[in-house]
Specification:
alpha/beta; Rossmann fold; Alpha-Beta Plaits; 4 domains; six-stranded parallel sheet; 22 strands; potassium transport
Amino acid sequence: MRIMIVGAGMIGQHLSEKLSGEGQEVVLVDSDEKKLRRLERELNVMPVVGSGASPRVLEKAGIEQTDLFIAVTDSDEINLIACIISRQYKVKTRIARVRNEDFYAQGTSRVEKTLGIDLVISPDLAMTEEILRLITLSQAVEVAEFGHGQVDLLGYQAKAGHPCVGSTLAELRDLQRTYHFLVVAITRGETTIIPRGDDKVEVDDKLYLVARRPDVPLVEKLLFATTSRLPRRVFIIGGGSIGAQVASQLEQLRIEVRLLEQDAKVCERLAEQLENTVVLNSDGLEAHDLLEEDIDQADLVIAVTSSDTTNILSSLLAKHHGAKKCITLISNPGFVPMLGKLGIDVPLSPRQVAANMILRYVRRDGGGRVVSVASLLGNDAEVVEMKVPDHDQFVDLPLKHLTFPYGSIVGAIMRGHQTIIPTGDTRLAPDDNLIIFFTSDAEQGVASLFDK
């Protein structure tokens, strides 16, 4: 497939890396020649210098031969104009990133239909949805949904006193047969391990497990001696689009919310818009203000200002004074590896959230075997939902007879409305969907799993 990406920012770079790594023909268009030359050396992409809103530049980039067009610059206008221009060249699928909230007043489907764009994605809306998922599954530090929400891939931090700490994977495997979950990976420091039977869970490990949605509370209790519940008191630091949307959603869940915003005029507007949220004129970096508002009793702090520095420092300050958990927006991916050591519970990357949403759409729209995909923040692992071909050689085939590359593991099988946590003896059926966890070294092997 020939894919044209307009915009070599963080989302464009992430998409280029993923899609070119899968063997797709990727053309990257941007006006920053220096950045394009660097990416040409690092990635297998064809760079084209110029504006994505210029028909001449798009023709030079080969728009007439393009199957998928993705516009993800920092300018809404360029993204929309580029997609509209691409219609003249009969590009099959068009995707645009749009930040302006006015485009969403009538719903994205109306915008998509009016402009002839297949998917309009708002990074702020995507971030809001991701935060709400993490609030619902409060004990998890990472969440990905598969099988239309029937099964979750969940990341948990193992802490001293958790029942799972010190257990081998063989011991956990005995429990898995009864409680329907599967530990698919352990992240230890910057290393991702596909665990074997004699691997032990250690303090500060991040455990990734797959479980059916109804089984999650029982599995949490079994492994971590606690269960997810909605927080009672939440502090939101940052009154921008994300902060305001999250506050509005939490009000509907009857959660006590305090929102801190530095700009006094924004505070006035938010106080009028939000019904039950306490809006405070503060930047979240004044310990006195936080303690006066009982930050020490907060179940959750969500830092979503436009500044990574403010988000990190305000989260650390809140944790120091007793806040139980922090969700912290981080735009610069270079900060991510050090955040766990600093005590940041859940870093969220707008780039990765938006890119994952686009990748899921691309896979589903592509009509191939890959149904959905998610990249995991801060490590080199991914999860993919892949359809088993309707070929005789795969019918009734035991899972252990399918040659999986080293560094990969099947976490679940979706069969219609049924979710199966598999063993090696589980037999495949036509059109089964496999939820496969794998490290980057195993990516090519997973992609070619059914190429027989």
